[in-house]
Structure to design on (236 residues):
């Protein structure tokens, strides 16, 4: 059976497989910012993102966090459990950065006394607007019980990733993740974990090693992503 494209986003493509419970997620070399307004191609980026995501998925699975990841298929893609996505995007912040600094007039890099969990409604036409859990429940997007389960998982994921990145000289400033339900009802972390979805700073220099290099025209986007992967491989 030929794999058919189920959906295609700015940087990923989801394909069908012979198993209706599984899909292939293919990472492209596209780089985007500002909800796709700014676009470019970064040669080799898809391979790097695929490798980084696979390592981090396996790290989470090893530490008891269920994800949709099954295995690497090839250098551009991996096999995942098929999920029904929850139309919410969750952001975990450990330091003030990005739009938070503009909204609240806080200096970039300000440490937060505790992690902040944010919630956005996934809708590209509306630029994924910020909402709170009351909206999510009132609009029928999720339930109080499901959101409580997600918040617990976010705390666990943050603890695991923060310690891991610190061990390779990287500060996890913030990150975003999504969740979905498998056919058996299991809540799984999905989407991806990479410098596209995590804000990563070198501990010694505070140099950005993530998509902000593309967003703010800092250059060396591909090289920075490869540096993150290099440190991860050396850790292994």
């Amino acid at each position: 059976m030929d794999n058919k494209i189920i959906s295609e986003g700015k940087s990923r493509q989801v394909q069908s497989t012979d198993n209706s419970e599984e899909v292939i997620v293919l990472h492209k070399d596209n780089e985007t910012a500002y909800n796709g307004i700014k676009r470019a191609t970064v040669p080799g980026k898809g391979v790097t993102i695929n490798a980084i995501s696979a390592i981090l998925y396996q790290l989470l699975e090893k530490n008891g966090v269920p994800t949709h990841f099954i295995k690497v298929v090839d250098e551009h893609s991996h096999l995942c459990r098929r999920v029904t996505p929850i139309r919410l995007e969750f952001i975990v912040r450990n330091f003030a950065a990005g739009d938070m600094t503009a909204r609240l007039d806080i200096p970039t890099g300000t440490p937060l006394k505790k992690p902040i969990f944010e919630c956005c409604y996934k809708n590209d036409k509306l630029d994924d607007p910020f909402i709170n859990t009351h909206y999510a429940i009132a609009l029928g997007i999720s339930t109080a019980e499901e959101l409580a389960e997600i918040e617990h998982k976010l705390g666990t994921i943050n603890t695991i990733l923060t310690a891991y990145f610190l061990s390779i000289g990287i500060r996890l400033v913030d990150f975003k993740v999504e969740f979905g339900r498998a056919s058996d009802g299991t809540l799984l972390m999905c989407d991806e974990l990479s410098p596209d979805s995590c804000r990563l700073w070198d501990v010694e220099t505070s140099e950005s090693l993530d998509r902000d290099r593309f967003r703010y025209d800092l250059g060396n986007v591909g090289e920075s992503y490869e540096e993150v992967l290099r440190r991860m491989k050396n850790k292994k």
In short: The chain is about 30% helix and 35% strand.
